[in-house]
Design a protein that fits this description.
With 424 residues, the chain is α+β, with helices and mostly antiparallel strands. Helix content is 52%, strand content 21%. A six-stranded antiparallel barrel has the order 1-10-14-12-11-15. A four-stranded antiparallel sheet has the order 2-9-7-4, with no helix packed on it. It is rod-shaped and about 205 Å long.
Length: 424
């Protein structure tokens, strides 16, 4: 006889199957949780940047802007004029320096001809420097000729003085003979002693005249020697003045040539030309008469976006899970996400130092990622060939961080906490 509390088989059988099914389900869920993968998703915001850099145009000399040929956002071609700097002052200075160079070079040739005793170049006969040096030569010639005349006059005087000395000497010899005769007559008493004294006085006067003539002769000879010395001194001083002038000119020419080259280079670089095909991204000097300092950025040129890359900032909390070569997914928020192919990126660089805000708080780590060109081509095809990307276009990155299992994530921590509670 069956127990009245026992449910009929037609009721128990479904319940038993349900219990068995539930038990199996729990078992398989527990078994699946051991191997079920879980992953941390790292999300980061970024922008598209070109693999080709922007150009910041600077001027090596600077100066006043004379004309601006472009506006911001203008498309430009390589070699196109962008700006022109005013070089009027440089042109005037260059003209003056060239005149100085020509003057010094001409004077050097004139001096070289003079020093080499060469005939003057007929090309310089009408040049002011030629007349200047001819005047100096004439002045030197006049002074030397004056000294030559002085020497000639003094030499004539020397001849006269020497002739006078010879006559005085003859007179002295005659007086000597007479004196000897007087001495003989005085001894015999034929001539008074007073006459002998008068003869002696005349002798002394004659000796004085001879000495005066010798003094005059010495003076004239000294004057002749001094005139010859003055002649040589004038020639030497003139020769040295030419050499000094030649040396000064030659020492100045290299510096003048250097200044001329610099000024010519400034004039040649008055036009600022575009080095690339691209667009004017920013124009820092857009009006005339603005002064540009040396090395100041005049304008920034951007190139068409080719081989775009992603510039992003990795959150500081996730940087430990990031590594070079990591693959992620690119999301362009402006595009419809439904039925679009995935575009993958590969992390190519990661900054070693964090980017900080104005308060010094860490924002994240700057990184660059390369876009898979094949995926990008697929996306363009999916968009019907109308995919238009631009520099600084906002994008999102999604990357897979650390992976684990449901068992390790839920079960293990639960039992670990439970074991600790029992031990307590």
């Amino acid at each position: 006889m069956k127990d009245q509390n026992t449910l009929p088989n037609n009721i128990m059988r479904p319940l038993n199957w349900a219990a068995l099914t539930l038990a199996c389900t729990i078992f398989f869920i527990a078994l699946w949780s051991v191997y079920a993968p879980l992953a941390t998703t790292i999300k980061a915001d970024g922008t598209l940047v070109s693999s080709r850099p922007n150009y910041e145009i600077q001027h090596v000399y600077g100066g006043e802007i004379q004309k601006v040929y472009v506006k911001a956002q203008d498309n430009i071609q390589k070699g196109q004029k962008l700006l022109r700097l005013n070089t009027d002052t440089q042109s005037e200075s260059l003209t003056y320096i060239k005149q100085q160079i020509l003057r010094l070079s001409t004077e050097n040739e004139i001096i070289t001809n003079i020093l080499g005793r060469n005939p003057p170049d007929p090309n310089y006969k009408n040049h002011a420097l030629y007349h200047k040096h001819q005047t100096l030569i004439a002045d030197l010639k006049f002074k030397t000729q004056s000294l030559t005349q002085t020497i000639s006059t003094k030499e004539d005087q020397v001849i006269l003085v020497r002739g006078g000395i010879d006559l005085l000497k003859k007179r002295r010899d005659y007086m000597k003979q007479r004196s000897e005769s007087y001495d003989h007559l005085i001894t015999k008493g034929a001539v008074a002693a007073i006459q002998a004294e008068a003869q002696a006085d005349q002798w002394l006067e004659l000796e004085g005249e001879i000495n005066d003539e010798y003094a005059q002769l010495e003076t004239n000879l000294n004057d002749i020697e001094q005139a010859k010395i003055d002649q040589q001194r004038l020639k030497t001083e003139y020769h040295l003045s030419l050499l000094n002038q030649l040396g000064q000119n030659k020492s100045r020419l290299p510096e003048l040539h250097r200044q001329a080259l610099i000024l010519q280079d400034e004039i040649n670089k008055a036009f600022v030309l575009s080095p690339i095909d691209g667009a004017v991204q920013s124009l820092n000097f857009d009006t005339e008469q603005m002064y540009v300092a040396k090395g100041t950025t005049l304008l920034t040129l951007s190139q068409p976006l080719q081989k775009p890359r992603v510039k992003t900032t990795i959150p500081a909390s996730s940087v430990d899970q990031i590594y070079i070569g990591m693959i992620g997914k690119l999301i362009i928020p402006s595009l419809p996400q439904r039925n679009l192919p995935s575009v993958h990126v590969t992390l190519s660089s990661l900054a070693a130092e964090a980017v900080k805000d104005e308060m010094g708080q860490t924002v994240g780590y700057q990184a660059y990622a390369d876009i898979n060109t094949k995926d990008l081509k697929k996306l363009e095809n999916a968009m019907g060939g109308s995919l238009n990307l631009a520099t600084d276009m906002p994008v999102n990155l999604s990357m897979v961080g650390n992976t684990t299992t449901l068992y390790q994530y839920l079960i293990v921590p639960f039992f670990s906490a439970f074991d600790g509670a029992i031990q307590d």
